[in-house]
Amino acid sequence: MIPEVVGRAVADAHRREWAAVLAATVRVTRDLDLAEECVQDAYAAALEAWVDEVPARPGAWLTTAARHNALDAVRRARTQQAKLHLLVEPPALPAVADDRLRLVFLCCHPALALEAQVALTLRLVCGVATPDVAQAFLVPEPTMAARITRAKKKIATSRIPFRMPAPNALPARLDAVLTVIHLLFTTGHTAPAGPALTRDDLAERALDLARMLRALLPREREVSGLLALLLANHARRTTRTAADGRLLRLEEQDRTAWDSAAIAEADALVVRALRGGDPGRFALQAAIATLHAIAPAYDETDWPQILVLYDELLRRWPSPVVALNRAVAVAMVHGPAAGLAELEALDGDPRLSGYRYLPAAKADLLRRLGRDAEAAAAYERALALTPNESERDFLAGRLAESITSSYIPKS
User: Fold this and answer.
1) Domain ranges of the chain
2) To the nearest 10°, the Cα dihedral for 285, 365, 354, 226?
3) Positive or negative torsion for Cα 370, 376, 378, 382
4) Check whether domain 4-81 has CATH 1.10.1740, yes or no
5) Are 101 and 212 in contact (CB under 8 A)?
6) Which of 8, 125, 211, 401 has a 20 to 30 Å separation from 333 between CA atoms?
């Protein structure tokens, strides 16, 4: 039987080190499937080897083990001679200090469709579970699993080399890389499932990648926008739940406990991202997040300006999720009835059929309009779609309040 302390150490190393170990191993194999297999074997070996003593640097131990596995596999395939030269980095490669960011660029290969690039990178490099990747794309899990498998096969059959693209090729991959980092952060900011509202390890990994990306491409305005967006949202992380884990809405959070240094950094980055021409979608999202962050109180939020930014964001990025968020801003500026009308217009969009925030937002506006029975029905729909336990507790509480209110005779 594996001692509990060893199991916890390996699980923690899997959560924290998977991407770095995989990235280092791909540098040896230049084969994604083979590298993944070698890394999995290294983790399996750790369960036995760490029984005597958990190493001081688990990531280094796992990287060494996985690289040894990779070299053994290459030798067994009698391709050692052909593969050894790949161990040496080509001298003309651009400087990307971190293997994780390097691997993100490698997986975001233009031979794959954009969605396949992003999904593959989230799953393999960032360690996001396939069901969570599926939720991020608003598609069923089997659809996403098939998409990831097809992407891996295309890389193998097309013999796409795992080389870092030349500097002039980086911009062509930038949109996918930005999307990967943003979705990774989103998955950590609000965990799709599980007992806790957040997964700070994923959010912090995304922030690290965003900072490295900005160091690599300091003049790209959308990179500044992405980093600002992440900072403005991450600044609130300690106040989003109460001590007992209960979800706290934005208006309930203690703004004095927000990370003021991160908000100031985000604010400065937004100015750079918006300057010099039409802003991109990350710059616009960052501007919205920063307006929320710098408001001295919830009631003093500049909702009219936020609605203007959502109008522009929706024009540039016609996503149903953006339309939903814009509807909330409409409700804050023009009243809940106007916001509800915007949300009802989204009811027929099949991309939102399993998106829990649509019925949740409708429920909130119905509650504010005093239509408690309809609000209760909407809360029930949202609850049925929500696997995160912290969010479920919040929705269940609101559902109970709406049911109670709907039975109270209106005077």
Assistant:
1) 4-81
2) 10
3) positive
4) yes
5) yes
6) 401
Task: Give the least confident one: 124-138, 183-197, 200-214.
Answer: 124-138
The per-residue pLDDT for 89 is 43
Percentage, residues of the chain above pLDDT 70:
92
pLDDT-derived band at 95, boundaries 50, 70, 90: very low
| Gap between the Cα atoms of 294 and 306, Å rounded | 12
Q: Is the pLDDT of residue 87 over 60?
A: no
- Of the candidates 62, 68, 70, the one whose C-alpha atom is nearest the C-alpha of residue 21 is 62
Q: What is the DSSP string of 302-347?
A: -HHHHHHHHHHHHHHS--HHHHHHHHHHHHHHH-HHHHHHHHHTTT
Token pair recorded at residue 142:
């089997």
Coil vs helix vs strand at 190: coil
Decide if 30 contacts 45 (C-beta within 8 A). Answer: no
HSE-CB of 168 using CA atoms within 13 angstroms:
1
Give the C-alpha separation, 13 to 49, whole Å: 14
Could you tell me which residues are beta bridge partners of residue 241?
247
Q: Are 105 and 212 in contact (CB under 8 A)?
A: no
| pLDDT computed for residue 163 by the predictor | 66
The band of 88, judged by pLDDT with boundaries at 50, 70 and 90, is: very low
174-183, 318-327, 398-407: which is most confident: 318-327
Q: Which residues contact 377 (CB under 8 A, 6 or more apart)?
A: none
The reported pLDDT for the residue numbered 106 is 79
Residue whose entry in the numeric block shows the structure tokens 């507790």: 393
Q: Whats the size of the chain, residue-wise?
A: 411
d(CA 176, CA 173): 6
